[in-house]
# Entry
Amino acid sequence: MHHFFRAASVWLTVLLACAVVRAEEPALTPPMALGTTDVPYPAGASGDSSVVLELTVEKDGSVSNATLVEGSEPFGEQARSVSRSWRFEPARRQGVPVAARVRARVEFRQEHAEPLPAVEASGESTEAVPAQHAEPKALPPAPPIEISVLGERREIGQTTLSKREVRELPGAFGDAFRAIEIMPGVTPLMSGVPHFYVRGAPPNNSGYFIDGIRVPALFHLGVAQSVIHPGLIDHVDFFPSAAPARYGGFAGAIIAGQTREPASKAHGEANLRLIDAGALVEAPFADDRGSALLAGRYGYPGPILQAVTGDVKLSYWDYQARASYRIGRRDTLGVFAFGSHDYLAQRSPSSDPVASQKFIEQFVSDTHRLDLRYDHSLNDGRLRLAVTGGYDSQGADPTYVKNLSLGTRLEVEQRLTESLRLRGGADGQIDDYRVKVGVSRPLDPLPPVDAYPPPRNFRAGLHTDFVWRVVPRVELVPGARVDLFTSSRSRQPTAGSRATSIVPAVDPRLATRVTLLPGLAWLAAFGLSHQYPSLRLGDVPAPLVTVPGFPTGQRQLQTVTQMSQGVEIALPADLVASVTGFYSHWSGLTDLSSPCRERMAGSGPATSPDDPLPPLVCPGNQPVHGRAYGVELMLRRPFTKRLSGWLSYTLSRSTREAHYLTPAGVNELVTVVSDFDRTHVLNVALSYDLGRSWRVGSRLLFYTGTPYSALDGSIPVPPYNAYRSPAFYRIDFRLEKRWRLGETGAIAFVLEGQNVTLSTEVTNLNQDCEGHGGPGGSTTRCEQPKVGPITLPSVGIEVFF
# Structure
């Protein structure tokens, strides 16, 4: 029956799209220049010249980038530098400001001075002024040509968060990745913890990308700062489900950061805060044929933690380096390297005075990437070929997981006709894992060497889709991926022998946008996605350390069917509203965020001699079925306005088949509400420009509690997940004062805080009712542990130059 409704939804999408009659193109107005656009004739130049620039005009009318398309120096550099100060009335679609690219021609004409009459002066005469010394005057640029509206290419179901927008978002600390938490459909594990459920998908099912490079995580642990300097990020694309075909290998949300294009002039920024310091510098070289960038950040939150608690140590750092060089008119070579480090330790709970002074590792992480890329501009498209090497290490004493990876990707985009654009490519990656497993206490038995045989995985895929404007008001994006998932592990107990599994997968995708009325659009998306199963190792809190691969007794992938239907409405006063309903269904799901309950000896499914892994000890490792459904509401006004705001609300339900061990030792499979299901999640953010470069903002986050079961000792008892922890709310605050610094620079004082209300949160993690039972040891509802207050104050100075 479910398959019938899925198919019906897809065909309904196609039929409704094709039923819309051809109509006029939605109203689109190009950017219009405000004020003068004169460009002074460059000093020392001679002759006439014509320059064509491609300008990126943002939603607020500023020029964020200027690229020389045609022309020679020094005229090109003169036009580029001056055009960055131009102001425009932004492009608008149906009255809503959108970013746009425009091409403008600047004509330089050298004025020839008229001969001056000879003047008697001390017997000498004055000659005519040479032409090259005449006062120059440049003609204003011709009307823009080849207007390319950037908002036109927004994916169906995608929300883009630009650095310019999220800078003003309270609690985001100027970081575009942190703004993910405010999106509808996003539920955090806990406030301040950078791991999220998205439309019911657990955190280990979310895919993170930087410029198409897969990374294990986007945030530093504990402070939730992104591992990439905010100044390098141009925007973040968020796909809560049914992402475009180029993203594969994940049965959840896709969060993809895109870095800024290389700058045409030297610039930089630096910031100094209570918890960290960072800087970014970039400069062109070789007559603007190349560009080099260095950035990094170092965290020292120790003093802040000492003020709150002396039992925790936390440190982090990250770095980024990028260089590009144009080897031809259409060809560019580039290299991009980045990495990060996190360390978290907690004081030993031992009652021994000496042992209690020691700190025990809770989590250590290192990530490094080196990406080599070749870009080629097609006549009306682009091509990128890249190779990426990676190293990852995550864990805590005594369990560590390391991974050496090598990946490649080919991306091609080409406009075939005015109404049809092709996107396609291929990607593949090898992951070679190494697992070190020890013991936490000296008297514990050491696991056998082959107790956790590390996997070696290889995934290769082809993908393609078409962006097809069927009629002016209807856009269809059909596409598909074909992937091959391969995983091999050492057999037990024979050393040197490996068990290998090969599983193919086909992922169809379909997205539709129909403009019903000016300012009103209907959007629909459908997709099927596959992902390696996930395995939790050791005692490190999930989902921080996981290993992908095929688990014991299983040769199946995690599979999800995702669909959504919604409407988007452009309202007066630059407000945009959307209402979206979604449904997701998983099979073979491994939800590693579920609390780990010990299984009694002899329980659980039997294993066969060929199974490469021993019996698992956590229910989250076992593949189950699950589903999620709900309604999302979003209302937003750009943060570039004097009064800006954002409201998102999610009403949802997520369920799982879960394995529970009964007190009698029976492994029971039942359908329950997911351990991190939150029925209501609300975000409200407001920001106001006070004038004189002062801006203030605040944000409210509220969500209902998570379900939990009563325990008999450490074993859940029915009714499972029948109780709810208390609701939680927090308030964030931001105050900024900015001063101009030279022609294009600025300096800002920022006071910002997350959870300024110092709210504590109740969690269902680490719940233990042992010793708290009723008369005769009967089951009782237990007091759940409180966490926090997790708060992050920040007072800092930011400089842009």
Summary: Residues 216 and 448 are 28 Å apart (CA to CA). Residues 2-19 form the longest helix (18 residues). The chain has a mean pLDDT of 78. The first strand starts at residue 28 and ends at 29.
